[in-house]
Amino acid sequence: MSPSTAAAASSLRALPLHILVPLVASALAFIVAVFRRILRRPRPVYLLNYSCHLPDADRQCNLEVCEYFGLRSKRYTDETADFMRLIFRKSGLGQETFAPPFIFSGKFEKTLAFAIQEAEEGLFTVVSQLLAKSDVSPRDVSVLIVACSMFSPQPSLATMIVRRFKMRDDVKAYSFAGMGCSAGTVGIDMAARLLRVQRRPGYALVVVTENTSLNWYFGNNKHMLVTNCIFRVGSAAALITDVPARRADAKYELLRTLRTHHGADDAAYNAAVQMEDEDGGVGVALTKDLVRVAGAGLRSHIATLAPYVLPVSELLRFFKVNQNENVGRFKHSHCIFADVASIYTLTYPLRVEPITLVSIVSIDLLKIKTSPLLKMSWKLYVYRVAWAYSGGNPKAAAALVPDFQRAFEHMCIHSGGKAPARATLHRFGNTSSSLVFYELAYFEAKRRVRAGDRLWMLAFGTGFKACSVVWRALRDSGPDADNPWNGCAHRYPAALPVPTPRRQNYQPQPEQQQQLEEQKK
Length: 521
What we know:
Layout: H1 3-13, H2 17-40, E1 46-52, E2 60-61, H3 63-73, H4 78-90, E3 97-98, H5 112-134, E4 141-148, H6 157-165, E5 172-176, H7 183-197, E6 203-209, H8 222-230, E7 235-241, E8 252-261, H9 266-269, E9 272-276, E10 282-286, H10 290-309, H11 312-325, H12 333-346, H13 358-365, H14 372-389, H15 394-398, E11 410-413, H16 422-428, H17 435-445, E12 454-461, E13 465-473, H18 510-520
């Protein structure tokens, strides 16, 4: 025993008993708490691999195929055909998307047989490819989640996969229906939760698809025709595991998931609904309120996610605003965090009624009540801070938005429109819940994913619901042999059409301006 250790031991023995006993008890309690924390810590969850479905080339659906099908089916008026042609050209879809089998059958009838054929082609293909390249037997899968929003046969799609691949008897099989385009990320979230509550590590297979055969709309209601023009065939499968030994083989580690649901709001619930038209035709009606509802729901969802993923420097930037302007300072830490969250929510670019983060930071994290003063005046306070910081310029105040590129290197956002993920929308169309996996495959085909990169999957669907999944890359990723972008990734983004300039931004040349003035005279 070294002299220093002996001296420390002798000094401890010299302590009075009423001091030594609490000291030893505190040390033992600390050790027990540390071990308990380690034992109760959730096991890491990894994305072992994934696979996307690439249909045969004879299923490609361009504008000519759509026009031929619409005219030969004799179900649409001339006005309806012109409307669908306009939507197709403005949607951002290319000429190589894939349509369901009944489009090419020549029968012009949607039947259950065509729907089952479409489901089996997509589901069985991606599951076979995924299990083969992951070196996992179907009997090793303990959790199976299948998501298909618009098609729910009996037996279920999950049972079809269990029967086809002869999975074990105690597999926990689930089938999602009606979850919209967010079903893929919701399935990842549910699979991770189920794996973490199991006593033994295992594998979870998440399979997502959408079935357009039985949901093709034959009618003339313009609100229900949009789905015919933008939704296309696509499927994906992901293998999730919490087996520690498979970390070396995994591509990504799951960092965080977040789900929000605004179904209690009538406007959000009715923004996209499956219904019958006046002639009895069934389809999904997209209302004019969909854009507003989606914007408000996404702002609320992103505001909830921001404190957990943004770096401290971004949050401190708003704290600096508070300190510099000396407006509404509070001495309590929970109020400071609430100020930061409130500043974020009200300086987001699209100014719709914000959802405050006070409940997230003050209640969920710190378990402390929010100050009454903040409850009454947080809106006015934030506007004053943003206005003062920007020098009275509203546009500069709107620029006070956290930089999410400092939180994520890659973003896979569901392409419900032209702006996000234009390349994926152009090549494959809107494949619903599987679209975020096609976007991930695009990043890997371009060899952009590096070890340590953080990746954000964000999908949103009818209801209105949104789900985020945050990954961290464990290794550099390149295109697999079954990557759907093989052979065409080099054409993007150059293959994308050039956006048409808006009319209000158009400035005529001097010669054209002179001609216009002469015409006016």
